[in-house]
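Handoff note, outgoing to incoming analyst
You'll be picking up this chain. Sequence as last confirmed:
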Amino acid sequence: MRAAGPFDAADLAELDERLLSRATRVVPMRDVFKGDAGERVIGLRHDVDDNEGSLETALRLAEWECEHGYASTYFLLHDSHYWGDDMLVVAEQLEELGHEVGIHVNAIAEALRQCRDPNVILLEALTYLRAAVRVVGCVAHGDSLCQRGGSLLFVNDELFSESPRPEVGSASRLITTGEGYEFPLAPIPRSTYGLEYDANWLSRGDYLSDSGARWSQPFEHVVSGFGERGQLHILQHPDWWIQAFVSEEVAA
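Most recent structure output, in case you need it:
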């Protein structure tokens, strides 16, 4: 397994052979929230970010997972280039394949861009997505506006009262880019939006993420400790796995 992406078909096969296939079950984050928390149960999620080919690759991954008997969660980004009616069709396909669809929350960042209420932005996005699929889970997106000059200004899950970030700032502070527009942060419960959980706040024993196209810890370390450190949660970004399906497209 290479330490950094883009990842290819060999990397996907190794992820399967050395981790996924060893699990008792590979489940979506909704199931983890509901209590499927065994040490040999893997909680699998995908943050579908705003990069070319991300949604298409998400569907390819979903099909591959379905063929292998795995289920996962796909968090769709509401301010992405793919957000639209075609995305709703893909969301329905993901659900039909046995996966969960959630919302990738970027409402605070978008409030700064649009000069609008972040609560309204999120509610509009949820209403649109729920026209096609059931949505009960969320996770924050790490937008470029979240940081300035190397300092973390906010996290998009601070919209929720269950996600305090005292290390970042007060839950009632002003949010601003320093370029004119600002608004007071006023967290409210996730349940206000009909959301049951946030994937980043679910209990876990080990965590493996490919954020930034690099594994968050050595792959071998995760493999050697699987089943001994508590439940493993894996985050994949489809952006980094486009090459895993290129050979199939050429052959077709």
